[in-house]
Amino acid sequence: DAKTTQPTSMDCAEGRAANLPCNHSTISGNEYVYWYRQIHSQGPQYIIHGLKNNETNEMASLIITEDRKSSTLILPHATLRDTAVYYCIVRGADGLTFGKGTHLIIQP
Amino acid sequence: NAGVTQTPKFRILKIGQSMTLQCTQDMNHNYMYWYRQDPGMGLKLIYYSVGAGITDKGEVPNGYNVSRSTTEDFPLRLELAAPSQTSVYFCASRPPGTGVNIQYFGAGTRLSVL
Questions:
Q1: Which of the four pLDDT bands, split at 50, 70 and 90, describes residue B1?
Q2: Most B CBs within 10 Å: which of A52, A98, A100, as the mutation test of the B interface?
Q3: Fewer CB within 10 A of the end CB, N or C, for chain A?
Q4: Pick from A73, A8, A85: nearest CA to A40
Q5: pLDDT of residue A1
Q6: A43/B90 Cβ within 8 A
Q7: Secondary structure of A7-70 in the HEC alphabet?
Q8: Each residue's pLDDT tens digit, B3-44
Q9: Which residue of A lies nearest to B39 if distances are taken between CA atoms?
Q10: Backbone angles phi, psi at A80, to 5 degrees
Q11: CB contact at 8 A, B83 and B113
C-alpha cells in the first residue's frame, strides 16, 4: 500500500476554504486516492475519491497533482460542523488503511 | 434507509468474559469489514468478508472470530476478553465491484475490558 503523509492538525476560519494536503509519493498507477472524515465519537464518513483527474461533489473538491504524488482536499466554505479528523487513504482493495489523519479545527 | 447498524453502542466486560458485537446492513452489500480504533489512532482492520460464507483475516485478527451466514449480518466474537481489546469497534460495508473502495460505516461500539 502507498503510504500517505498528512499534517497533524490545521485551523481554518469559518466561511473560508479549508485546504488539506496529502503526500502519497509511492502511489501506483491503479491506486485511487480516498478522503474520509471522522467527526468526534462517530464512524468515518466517505467524502470523495479520485484517480487522475480533479473531482468535485456536494461535499468537497479533490485536486490531484499531475504526477499523482500529492493531493489536496478542499472544503469550499468551512462550517463549524466540518471540525473533524480527515484521512487521506491510498488503497486499491480490501480494507482501508487509516493513518492518524489531520485534525481540522474550524474557528468561529 | 438504516445503512450499517451496530449494537450495542457501549459495553463493559470483565477480563475473560465473552461477547458478540452485532453488525447488520440493509444495502445488500457483499463486502463487510470490522475495524478497531484505539484512542488517538487510525482504524485497524480485524476481519473482512467478501460475501456470505467467506471471511478473511485483516491486520489484527488475534482474539477475535467472525462468521458470515447471511449477506446482511457480520457479527464479531470476542471469546476471552482482555484489557488490550478495550477500543472502539467499527463495522463497515461496501457494494461489489473492483477498483473503487467506498465504505459505509456504522456508529461504532465502545468496549471497555476491566
A1: low
A2: A98
A3: C
A4: A85
A5: 58
A6: yes
A7: CCEEEEECCCCEEEEEECCCCCCCCCEEEEEECCCCCCEEEEEECCCCEECCCCEEEECCCCCE
A8: 999 999 999 999 999 999 999 999 999 999 999 999 888 889
A9: A100
A10: -60, -30
A11: yes
Average pLDDT over residues B62-82: 96
Nearest-angstrom CA–CA distance, A29 and A89: 15
Residues of B with Cβ-Cβ distance to A92 under 8 angstroms: 99, 101
Contact criterion met (CB < 8 Å) for A43 and B98: no
Point out the residue among B40, B43, B106 whose CB comes nearest to the CB of A98: B43
Q: How confident is the model at residue A24 (pLDDT cuts 50, 70, 90)?
A: very high
How confident is the model over A93-104, as pLDDT tens digits?
567 888 889 999
Determine contact, residues A38/A85, Cβ cutoff 8 Å. yes
Q: Above 80 in pLDDT, residue A91?
A: no
Mean pLDDT for B39-51 is: 90
A52 grid coordinates: 487522475
Decide if B105 and A97 are in contact by the 8 Å CB cutoff.
no
| Span A45-72, pLDDT tens digits | 999 999 998 999 999 999 999 999 999 9
B42 with A98: Cβ contact below 8 A: yes
**Taking CB atoms and an 8 Å cutoff, what residues of chain A touch B108?**
41-43
What gap in Å lies between CA A64 and CA A80, rounded to an integer? 26
